[in-house]
Specification:
alpha/beta; seven-stranded mixed β-sheet; six-stranded antiparallel beta barrel; 6 helices; 15 strands; globular
Length: 256
Amino acid sequence: MKKFLLDLRVVAVEHLNSRYILLRLTDDQPLPDMKPGQFVEVRIDHSPTTFLRRPISINFVDRKANELWLLVATIGDGTRSLAELKAGDWINCLLPLGNGFTQPTSKDEKILLVGGGVGVAPLLFFGKLIKDFGAEVSFLLGARSAKDLLELDNFMAFGRVFITTEDGSLGEKGLVTNHSILSKESFTRISMCGPTPMMKAMARLAKKLGTPCEASLENMMACGLGACLCCVEKTIEGNLRVCQDGPVFDVNKLLW
């Protein structure tokens, strides 16, 4: 897929809570084609300690508004500087990068999308694609507490939403792998993104259930183009670059 280096205009910076922001970006021209699961390398222009671009998952693409949404966890100098952007500012983005989730091929598919923390980001765009295609999509979202859950109203617009929180403040108490929906229903495929321990546990469960499963990895990246090799993941096919060969992988290829 062709890559683009674009200066995108900030439409809005929405502060979802004390840690997460939603960047809504646009361009004067129609935005390029992008797939759920791909990511963007964002240049940080106003942080003296940030020299490399930051990889951020594509959260959503609103074709009608010609907007690209990026869900950002403000955990370092670079991402905190993004939270200081204002409507009308410009941000330089290299996109789209990596591969995407496996897209549905039959309307009979029943797909479960599992996310934890900021790992829910790429699932919103994918959920819309599945719904528009005509297959069934359900979301299983986990967080530490209710205040850490993100974009719930948006997820509910596309499919059923099941929730776990570690403190029991919303949904079922515990981890996503313990949610009762996993024992009550079966799914044709599971796609997930989030903390590595969560994904490893879900991968083990999927293998036990005999359900195809894929994971979007969040290894540290620098270039986003496969040149620096800092995001390498060991697989049954050898060392693969997450930014180039992923970030989405069949869990059976991972040495988990």
